[in-house]
Specification:
The chain is of the alpha+beta class and 172 residues long. The chain is built from four helices and seven strands, in the order E-H-H-E-E-E-H-E-H-E-E. It has a seven-stranded mixed beta sheet with strand order 1-2-3-4-5-7-6, with helices on both faces. Helix 1 packs across helix 2. It is globular and about 40 Å long.
Length: 172
């Protein structure tokens, strides 16, 4: 039987997504240097993070689901870049995909939806920090018009070694 391509739907994240979103994030905490968190989270601990991303405004959460099963394939967020008021027109964006989801275009769909949702917001720049090496993430961000603005060398220590973080920015 030929395999059918699963339709991917993107929608704003909701509280009932919290368990699946926490599971995806915890994979990256345990297995990769992509996040510099070193201890996993419970859904209760992640709830304030989810609630900081309402369905409108500059800080949003978009979730990609498999159309047939509604399984969460990944998510993208825009969050405060820094807490001081002069940074309010800047956001930090990020994407996390379920471990078996990479290379299927889900990240592209998530960023398309996120940037469309942010188009009418009073935002000037988006920033993304990418732990190195991560060529897939670099390619995705460059495809969306991000440009490399600098690299923090050996800025984080995880798994017994230091990691660089390349910073990218995009005009909004």
């Amino acid at each position: 039987m030929p395999s059918e391509r699963t339709e991917v739907q993107v929608r704003p994240g909701v509280e009932s997504d919290l368990d699946a979103l926490t599971d995806i994030y915890n994979h990256y905490v345990r297995e990769t240097p992509i996040t510099f968190d070193t201890a996993t989270f419970t859904p209760v601990e992640r709830r304030p993070w989810l609630l900081s991303h309402p369905e409108d405004g500059p800080h949003q959460l978009m979730v990609a689901t498999a159309g047939d099963s509604q399984r969460i394939l990944g998510y993208a967020t825009s969050s405060a870049f820094r807490p001081k008021p002069a940074y309010e027109t800047s956001v930090e964006v990020t994407i996390y995909l379920a471990p078996d989801t990479g290379g299927r275009g889900v990240g592209t769909l998530l960023y398309k939806a996120l940037f469309a949702a942010l188009a009418d917001e009073d935002l000037h720049r988006a920033y993304a920090g990418i732990a190195q090496p991560n060529e897939a993430s670099v390619r995705l961000h460059e495809r969306f018009g991000f440009r490399h603005v600098g690299t923090y060398r050996e800025v984080g220590r995880k798994f017994g070694r230091y990691w660089d973080v390349a910073w990218y920015e995009k005009d909004l």
